[in-house]
Amino acid sequence: MATVTAPPPVVIPESYERSVFAPVTTWLTTTDHKLIGIMYMVTSFTAFLVAGIFALIIRVQLAQPNMNVVDAETYNQLVSAHGTTMIFFFVTLFLTGIANYIVPIMVGARDMAFPRVNALGFWLVPVSIAIYYAGFFLGGALNAGWTGYPPLTSRQFNPSLGVDLWTLSLIVWAISGIMASVNFLTTILALRAPGMDLLRLPLFVWAQISTSLLLLIVGAPLAGAMILTEIDRQFGTNFFTSAGRPVLYQHLFWFFGHPEVYIMILPGFGMISEIIPVFSRKRIFGYETMVLAIFGIVFLSMGVWAHHMFTVGLNVYVETAFMAMTALIAVPTGIKFFNWMATAWGGAIEFTTPMKFAFGFLATFLIGGITGVYLSAVPVDTQLHQSYYVVAHLHYVLFGGSVFTIFAGIYYWFPKFSGRILNERLGNWNFWTMFVGFNGTFLVMHTLGLDGMPRRIATYARQDWAGTNFFITGMSFLLAFSVLLFLINVLYSRRHGLIAGPDPWDGNTLEWATSSPPPPYNFERVPVVRSLMPLRDMKLAAAGKEITH
Amino acid sequence: MTGLSRRLRVSLAVIIAVTSVLIAASPTLANGLSLIFPDPVSPNGRDIYGLYVLITYPAIVIFVGVEVVLLYIILRFRRKHPAQFGAEWHGNTPLEIVWTIIPALIVAYIALVSFQVLVKDFSTEAANANTDMNVAVNGVQFTWSYTYDEGFTVQNEMVVPVGKMVHMTFDSDNVIHSWWVPALTGKTDAVPGYTNQSWIKVDPSVLTNCPNGNDRHPDEATGGCVFHGECAELCGAGHSQMQIDVLVLPQSQFDAWVATQKAKATAPSPSPKPSPRPSPSASPSASPSPKPSP
Asked: How far is CA A114 from CA A93, A121, A183, A191, A540, in A?
């Protein structure tokens, strides 16, 4: 439409259009939230693949006792890079990417509130990743685990440049995250379409509000912990060294680290809250309670950090308070869970791939939730903490939780991103290999922890752990295969997939009210919103049916 | 309908495949598959074990209940024809109150019982009550040293008598370590800068009942029982080598062992007070042992 009318459009020289640099400059200079969203997703998914390969090396190393595929120092670097990459560079940023693409359209905005801040926030991401990974080429990356507890990260015990690069990388990451958070909050609060009251916001948007709030609050303590670590290293101060208070670092780190868990799962909850109603053809059950539950989780999540520290020797009454808060967080999470089930109950469910991943999420996340209750009980935690039980638990919430929701989200919104639907047959195989591979890898892992296998050990001598570990390693390759199927699906479907059209799933929210992919300005006319499901209203109105709310 | 049945067939095929893989793998797996901690031999470890069992009851009920309902939803509420819509209702306050209150009561009960165990076994008072002897545990990269009331220090293997309340303190002058012997009790971190506490009181029954397993085994030289554990906090490249052995002896043999260690410690270099670093000769060999007890 821009090409038709009067004011002469900016003339792009033909030579430039033909230039091989044209696509490059487009991506480098764009402030379009959709392109930025895609760049977030591509960058972070690449990080996922790299960290996944690290995981496979780790699994090969642990397949049998006394293996020496990599030496202990390299192993520690791989473990640290796997954790850091998955948490900071993959899950958090992939979710930011989806939200960057979808949230402005969902609220009926033409772009994010601060498009250039958005671009800057994104471009800090590859900088942050590059700084971290430079360690591998400069004498060794971080080797103290993704949590990087001092004094193991102090200069006295760790002269490696990798630690300095890690602190710098996370400072840049935190700045980027804070920028994105401010942008999301402003966009959602200030740029909503007419009629979109707060209580008509889709739950994915509410989830993004909560996530942004959390990151805004806890990003600074993370950066603070990193800065103090670095000051200790460079200027010989004693904030966290063995002459200082190493536990103070743990408080700061986990004051970020635990809310980070919810930063990584709340957007996933939001996506599930979009997907289940659409494929059940039924309204979300208890919308207001769902919103309240999100904020219950937000507030509680900032008061539970010390449950990562039940073995450092806190006062028992302090531990009791953190235990109570931790146990309590199961309640809002439970509410969300039961409300999803009630949404599907009585629905007309179609099990497309996104819906399969949504139900896969429900089936596996439940296990992570239940093991979380075990871990909240301080005495039990003193046994399970720092063991493979915790490794299994965290993968049940991070992979069975966040990553399953990410795959659900990709299958759900890929038609919007690309105009084509991901192949259902490959999607089916992708889901089942991932579901079986994931549970095969991590379910039996709990037993190793119960039996006394600590996490982060480069090798082990006990023969009775060999069989279980070997099985886990085999299953981890099935899990890797599922990701390969996904990649094939994306590469195949973006050229040969079924044409999606604007609304392939019979959706309810505004992103389906515009073309796939949407034009740069998102909507030709900003829609007017009258309920929680504006698109459904439009479709009913077009069919001449009565709208009931 | 054909679509549905094909989907079911694929699902069934996958389930059968997985089950058969699991069954095929079970002989190798059975060895390392434990659904609970190793048999506890100290009262605090036993309380943790009991608490774990207590949490397991509601956990199983909730897990099975929810998964069954999920399966029911998957099978029962499928879209039968393309134009079909779901039910119109989308809220039920009493129901929501029920699934708020019930989980809240369950977790509150678990927290209450946990609190009782916590005060009973994990408070500073508990660690210091009725102490029979003290062992100061020090984490180093990458081994442990144990200093006894008598002033001597041993490395690698800790030796304790049965039936005695052993008060343990944990310290480190380097990085953080974590002392964990699952059969005894939960782990305690050795953090530089302050001293942590814990305790153990090993059942006398271990002297007669010490199966030759992976986390415990009879000590041939002494007839005692050795319990095994590992450092649980990443402490550097040697982390996985930082093993823990606790040899449990009858009181008489323990007393003899103490006498030997005292003699060893005083003989070569009569240092006045407990030196944190034992002289090389003081560090015991793998079998620390007074064979003939007096």
From this structure: 18, 10, 6, 11, 35
Residue B97 tokens, joined: 């109150």
pLDDT in tens, B169-209: 999 989 999 999 999 999 999 999 899 999 999 999 999 99
Closest CB to A242 among B73, B95, B192: B192
Question: What pLDDT score does B244 carry?
Answer: 96
- What is the structure's pLDDT at B293? 37
**Cα–Cα distance between B114 and B101 in angstroms, integer?**
20
pLDDT tens readout for residues B108-161:
999 999 999 999 999 988 888 889 999 999 999 999 999 999 999 999 899 999
B1: pLDDT strictly greater than 50 = no
What are B87-96's pLDDT values in tens digits? 988 889 999 9
B289 DSSP assignment: -
> What residues form DSSP beta bridges with B192?
B172
B179 contacts B188 by C-beta, under 8 angstroms: yes
Residue among A152, A281, A313 minimizing CB distance to B86: A281
**Contact across the interface for B78 and A366, Cβ inside 8 Å:** no
From the list B96, B122, B237, which residue is nearest A379 (CB)? B122
SS3 content of chain B, % helix, strand, coil (to 5): 40, 20, 35
Regarding an ipTM greater than 0.85, the answer is yes
**Helix H or strand E segment including B138:** strand B133-140
A370-399 tens-digit pLDDT: 999 999 999 999 999 999 999 999 999 999
* 3-state secondary structure (DSSP) of residue B227: strand
Identity of the residue in B55, B121, B191 whose CB atom sits nearest the CB atom of A373 = B55
Burial B46-64 (b: 16+ CB within 10 A, else e): bbbbebbebbeebbeebee
- Side chain identity, residue A542: A
Q: Tell whether B66 lies on the interface with A, counting CB pairs under 8 A.
A: yes
Indicate if the pLDDT at residue A1 is higher than 80.
Answer: no
Residue in chain A closest to B72 (alpha carbons) equals A345
**pTM of this structure:** 0.91
Q: How far is A47 from chain B (nearest CA, A)?
A: 24
Query: What is the per-residue pLDDT across A18-42, written as a single tens digit (0 to 9) for each?
Result: 667 778 888 999 999 999 999 999 9
B38 has a chain A CB within 8 A of its CB: yes
β-pairing, B243-249 with B157-161?
parallel
Cβ-based neighbours of A481, under 8 Å, separated by 6 or more: A433, A437
Instruction: Tell me the C-alpha distance between A21 and A25, whole Å.
Output: 6
Helix (H) or strand (E) holding B106: helix B93-117
Strand pairing partners for B146? B137, B154
Are B227 and B184 a contacting pair, CB within 8 Å? yes
Residues 234-293, chain B, touching A (beta carbon < 8 A)? 234-240, 243
B184, B159, B147, B188: which is closest to B254 by C-alpha? B159
Contact of A219 with A277, CB cutoff 8 Å? no
Q: Which of residues 195-214 of B touch A (CB under 8 A)?
A: 196-197, 214
User: Token pair 């390392």 is at which residue?
Assistant: B32
Q: How far apart are the CA of A414 and the nearest CA of chain B, in angstroms?
A: 22
